[in-house]
Structure formats: C-alpha cells, structure tokens
Amino acid sequence: MSKSFINTWSLHFHDEEIEESFRLDNIQFESRLVKIFLLMLIGFNAIYAAKDFYFTEQRDLISLQFQVFFILPVYVAMSVYTNRFKHLFQNFSFYSFAVFLCVFTIVSQLCMLYLNGDNGKGLDSIVLIAIFGSFIFSGILYRQMLGIVPFVLVVLIIFLVFLFELPLVRIINVSLIYTMAICASLLTKYQIERQRRLSYNRAASLMSDEKDIKESYLRINALSEMRRDLIAILAHDVRSPLASLQGVLSLTKSGSLSPEESREYLEKVEQQVSTVNFLVNDILIWIKSQSDEADFEKGPVNLSSIIEDLKFLFLDAFEEKQIEFKVSLTIDNVYGQPDMIKTILRNFISNAIKFSDKGTAIVLESRPEGSKVRISVRDHGMGMTADELAKLKNTFNTKLGTRKEKGMGLGLKICRALIQAHKSNLEVISQPNEGTTMSFLLNRA
Predict the structure, then answer these.
(1) Is 121:164 a contact under the CB 8 Å cutoff?
(2) Left (φ > 0), alpha (ψ -120 to 50) or beta: where does 322 sit?
(3) What is the pLDDT of residue 405?
(4) 3-state secondary structure of 97
(5) Are strands 324-329 and 361-369 parallel, antiparallel or unpaired?
(6) What are the chain's domains?
(7) What is the C-alpha radius of gyration for the chain, rounded to an integer number of angstroms?
C-alpha cells in the first residue's frame, strides 16, 4: 500500500478531512495520557513539597511557597477541568490546552528551581519531566513538538548560563542528556504515530469497502425483488386482460356473439385494458425512479395542472358513485418529478374512489408543514383496521372495494417507491368506517 497519503516529515494526512477525523478518533487516547501526566505531576510535586516541609534546610521557603500555593493549585485546577468538562476533548481546543500544560510545566519547574536558590540543584529531575512531557505531547502535536523541543532546549541553556553559576561541563552534559533523550523519545513516538496512522488508513479503507459491498448487496436484493414483482404482474395482471380481449375478439370473429353482446363484452375488456395501460405506465415510471438519474429529472411542478388532468380522468368514476371531489391547495407549486407525482396522486384517488360509498366526498389538499408541503388525499369510506394497515407493505395485498371492485395490489408499493425517490415517506391514517388519509411531503418550489 502506498504511503504517499502521509507527509513523512510531519506525519500529517494530505487530506484535511482524514486528518481531522483521525485527530477526533484518537483524541480520547491522547487525553488519557495528559490526565496521567497531570496526576503524576500532582503526586510528585505534593511528595516533594511534603518532604521539603519537614526538611526545610534542603529547600528555600519562597520556592516551597511557590510550589504549594501556585504550581499545585494550577495542576489540580487543570485536572478538575479535564475531568468535568469532557466536551473539551471533542474538539481541537484540547491541543491548545496540551501546549499550555507542556510549556507551563517546564517554565514553572525552572522558575521554582531558580527561586530555590541552590544554584541548579534538582535540575536533573526537571529535565526528566521535560523529556517525559515532550514524549507524551509529541503524539498529539508532533509537528509542533519539532519546534517546541528545540525551543525548550534553548531556554534551558539560557537558564543554565545566565541564572546559575554552573560549570561549562555541567551545562554541556545536561544539554547533551536532554538532546539525546528527546531525540530517542521523538523517534520512538514517530514510529508509534506512523503505525497508528497507517493502521487508521487501512481500517478506513476496509470500512469504505465494506460499505460499498453492503450497498451493492442491498441494490442487488432490491433489483431481484423488482424482478419477482414484474414477473408476477406479467404472469397475472397483464396476461389476464389480454386473454379476455383475445377471447372476445375470437367469439366476435366467429359470429358467436350478437352485436349487443360484443359491445357489452368489449366495454368490459376496454376497462381492463385501460387499467393495464395505467399499470404499465406506472411500472415504467417505477423502474425509472429506481435509477440513479431520477434526481436529475426533478423540477418545479404545478399541482393545479396535474389535478385538472386527474379530474378529467376520473370524471366517469366520480359520476357513477356520485362522489364530490374537493380540492384545497394552500400551496400550488412544489419541487419534484411531474410524472411520478401524477402517478402517486392518481393511485391515491383511484383507491379513494374504490373504497368510498355513494354520495361521499374525496378531498385533495396541500398545506405547509415547516419548510415543506404536505399533499394528502382523504376519503370517507370503508377505512382500514390496524391489521390491514400493517399489511399495506405487502406487494400484492388488496381487498374488494365498496362495489366489489378488484385491485392489482401493486399501486401502493409503486407509490411508496416513487415517494421515497423524492426523499419522503408515505403516511397512511385510517379508521374503520371513517375513511383513510394518504399523504407525503415535498419540497417547496
């Protein structure tokens, strides 16, 4: 695997999004190191302060007061802060806190050493603290530590030269010890950090591959289900009307039917063929909605123009059942795919007519709902029980209408798919003998 995605010098992902994701994923691990560092500092400072309190001849009083009344309270406050405000570790303000803690530790220890007035006694312990702190923080701020560590070294040398009367050999020894230890710790942390980043990248790649495989699997299942549905439709719902038409034509051709009988049968077959024609159009639109290009065909849609076409389409059905069709459009323009919206509303109205009693009303309305528009069709017909509502998701679940009208059982499945193509959901509210309301949400145009 190529490692070019990481800057080999600064150990920084070239992709800023990956870098930010890596930092956020690993910030809890690094924060634990910081908490451990704080607890160790509190413990060591408390032990040394207690020791020097009982053996005051080994420590200047000002230095002891500085440690007890300034350094220790600051460490305790930072420890409480890191434990109480855990949200601090969910963003990058933690890194600023880490820099402050590192610099404060080194500077405060040097100041305490100076106030002690014993000409640099205890310098080795401070160097160890600086080395340990640099090792911890180099995992969080590797690039920054490449600048901070030399800066600390320079500051340390300046303190040794100008504030303490140390021999030159002692200064050189301390500087060399610090330099070698820091280089060793940074090299170790570099390898650890590098392997962590490589492992993170491999894990991210595997997760991405797994996601792609899962999406492909779900897509194949959906296509397989669609194939089964289409075969069932062709085997029953399309073949049956065509067989009826063929039978009527054969009887008419052979002269077995009178003109009146032929006309009667042809009217029935015409209704069946018309239903099949709508079904075929619905299936074509349904297949179209399953393609990845469905989103690109959306645009502003005027509901009034669609409803006028539907009024004409269902005019005979409304008159036959004496159904009053009411329209109430608070918002007329929505954003979507015109043919799909028309298919959805046609199926809604067809179902409403099928299950409505003579002399009732069907209401189609649109109303604002937040930033979207809810479009609904409400009838006052048979309604559905809770069990019947639960069965609506079944592909071919259907029941007879108020006049024993038959349905093909696929309409709501197609509607649900078309509505999902608009990033919405079909909602059905129904009560037995009180009616049914079917609705969905669309964006405003």
Answers:
(1) no
(2) left
(3) 55
(4) helix
(5) parallel
(6) 6-212 (no CATH), 292-445 (3.30.565.10)
(7) 39
Q: Global pTM?
A: 0.47
Burial class (CB in 10 A: 0-12, 13-18, 19+), 97: middle
- The Cα–Cα gap between 340 and 352 comes to 18
Reference 98, options 37, 11, 154, 186; nearest CA is 37
* Six token digits for residue 409: 């059982």
- Per DSSP, what are the bridge partners of residue 236? none
User: Could you tell me where the DSSP H helices lie in 255-295?
Assistant: 259-289
Q: What is the H or E stretch that residue 335 is in?
A: strand 333-336
CA separation for the pair 124, 102 (Å, rounded): 17
Q: What is the pLDDT of residues 10-47, one digit of tens each?
A: 677 777 777 777 777 777 777 777 788 788 888 888 88
Q: Which residues on neighbouring strands pair with residue 436, listed in sequence order?
A: 430
Distances (CA, A) of 310 to 316, 330, 343, 372: 11, 19, 10, 23
Q: Report the C-alpha gap between 379 and 337 in whole angstroms.
A: 25
- 291 is written with which tokens? 């393609």
At residue 12, the 3 state secondary structure works out as: strand
* 286: CB partners within 8 A, 6+ apart: 414, 417, 418
Residues 6+ apart with CB under 8 A from 205: none
| Tokens of residue 323, six digits | 């159904």
Note the pLDDT tens digit of each residue in 398-422.
555 555 555 445 677 778 888 888 8
Please, which residues have CB within 8 angstroms of residue 281's CB and are 6 or more apart in sequence? Answer: 343
Give the C-alpha distances (Å, rounded to integers) separating 28 from 70, 94, 106, 133. Answer: 28, 10, 24, 17
pLDDT of residue 396: 46
* Residues of the chain with confidence (pLDDT) below 70: 1-6, 8-10, 55-60, 85-95, 117-149, 164, 222, 226, 229-230, 232-241, 271-272, 274-275, 278-279, 286, 288-296, 393-410
Residue type, 434: E
